[in-house]
Design brief:
This protein is an alpha/beta fold. Helix content is 41%, strand content 16%. Helix 13 runs parallel beside helix 15. The N and C termini lie far apart (51 Å).
Length: 449
């Protein structure tokens, strides 16, 4: 009898008599193109494996080390025994069993944020999540009570928040980014108009440091003005900060949460960029008090944990232990843990800016922004970009990038594309820009696909 082989996908459609589910009978969000964007951006490189990819914003892989995973796990287990006084059986249970819904490294995260960011938060206000993506959904789900509730988001917007809000049935109202990273006049105007229409604006989402996709950072005066505007509008701020450590300058601005004196900021963090995305560990700081009939309602973090308990139960203790060990190994400082990564991203950004200037001189019809750090920059080109053009670019020119329409509502093609430079070597950056220049010249000069 032959050995069973791997199952083959059914590519011929449903078999006669098999169940077919009409799309209109499923949740309406499943028809939303924004839900396809995340998979598209993550998987496009697999479709063109020989292409150089400026598409997905992934960490630099050359610094990954399997041995570090084992060392960090051992470091965390030693910490539990030596510093916490746990018995070996307790340590095994903490690593192998279901864990506390809020997480098991929340105290280490709080200590790290105090050291690196000057943020002093109660560890009980921290919920460890399955990546930042789960945190985005938990917050959106908690804020949505009925059809009147809406959120605001600085446009262009990270597609992960757009998708999470869709799933939570929390409509988004766009706020212009403007040259400062957020147009505060437009923010106030949008909130007032929404309330005139009977809506309840709950929060404004943004990435204040090297935003995805624009790469813009808010100045300190703009951060203070944003907090003042949020207070005036009685609005929460959802601060997403995956890239803040990766600045060209030694001095980094304070986070919005560090400046927050009213507990108006819900802070979303991730170890995808500062450790490794495969761990799928993020967190939410939600220290807002919740009032309830008949007594204290605790913190918003407690309510987010209640949602999480029915969604993912808990974040992998094993993955948290590896992250906790990484923090301990670097004296509870992600700044220290990421010195090598930060140097790579600074080098790559410099190479990108120099390479673009060499290939697209003044008068070429091509321009770009110059972010002060992070993973991304945006290129303005003299033709509309689209997923179809991206496929052609990967197939014909061997280079990938991200059409900017993925970050805006409506999805109309734009004359912009996002370039991510985080995961590339210097040689790949040079070759990739050569290929990109060939594509741009072909289409600028009237070439066709």
């Amino acid at each position: 009898m032959p050995a069973p082989g791997p199952s083959q996908p059914d590519t011929e459609g449903p078999r006669p008599g098999s169940v077919t589910l009409p799309l209109h009978t499923l949740h309406h969000s499943l028809s939303d193109p924004s839900l396809e964007s995340m998979n598209f951006l993550n998987e496009v490189s697999q479709r063109y494996p020989d292409a150089i990819s400026f598409a997905a914003g992934r960490p630099y892989e050359e610094l990954f080390d399997i041995a570090q995973v084992h060392r960090h796990l051992e470091e965390f287990c030693r910490y539990l025994e030596a510093d916490r006084g746990w018995r070996p059986a307790q340590v095994r249970r903490a690593i192998f069993q279901y864990g506390r819904t809020k997480g098991i490294v929340h105290d280490l995260v709080a200590a790290t944020l105090a050291k690196d960011e000057g943020m002093h938060v109660d560890p009980e206000a921290i919920v460890m999540t399955v990546g930042c993506q789960e945190g985005l959904f938990l917050v959106a789900r908690a804020l949505r009570t009925d059809a009147r509730d809406v959120a605001l988001a600085v446009a262009p917007t990270y597609v992960g928040f757009t998708g999470a809000a869709r799933l939570a049935e929390l409509p988004l109202l766009p706020v212009r980014a403007g040259p400062e990273g957020i147009d505060l006049d437009d923010l106030v105007r949008t909130v007032r108009q929404a309330r005139k229409e009977g809506l309840r604006p709950r929060a404004c989402y943004l990435v204040p440091d090297f935003a995805n996709p624009l790469g813009i950072s808010l100045s300190v005066p703009t951060r203070r003005a944003l907090l003042a505007a949020a207070a005036e509008c009685d609005l929460l701020i959802l601060e997403d900060n995956p890239y803040g450590l990766f600045s060209l300058l030694p001095e980094r601005p304070p986070t919005l949460k560090a400046l927050d004196s009213e507990r108006r900021v819900i802070y979303l963090g991730s170890f995808a960029k500062t450790a490794f995305p495969g761990a799928r560990v993020g967190y939410v700081i939600a220290d807002q008090a919740v009032s309830a009939d008949g007594g204290a309602g605790g913190l918003l973090a407690d309510r987010l944990a209640a949602i999480k308990s029915m969604l993912t139960v808990n974040t992998s203790p094993l993955a948290q232990a590896v992250i906790g060990g990484r923090l301990l190994a670097h004296d509870l400082s992600l700044v220290r843990a990421n010195t090598g990564e930060a140097a790579v991203y600074r080098r790559n950004l410099t190479l990108m800016l120099e390479g673009l200037a060499a290939r697209f001189p003044p008068g070429s019809g091509v321009s770009w922004n110059s972010p002060g750090g992070g993973y991304f920059l945006v290129l303005d080109v003299p033709f509309a970009t689209s997923d179809e053009l991206l496929a052609y670019s990967g197939r014909r020119h061997g280079v990938l990038w991200t059409p900017m329409h993925h970050f805006y509502a409506g999805g109309a093609p734009l004359r912009q594309l996002r370039l991510s430079f985080s995961q590339l070597t210097p040689g790949q950056i040079g070759s990739g820009l050569d290929r990109l220049a060939a594509l741009v010249h072909e289409h600028r000069d009237g070439g066709s696909r």
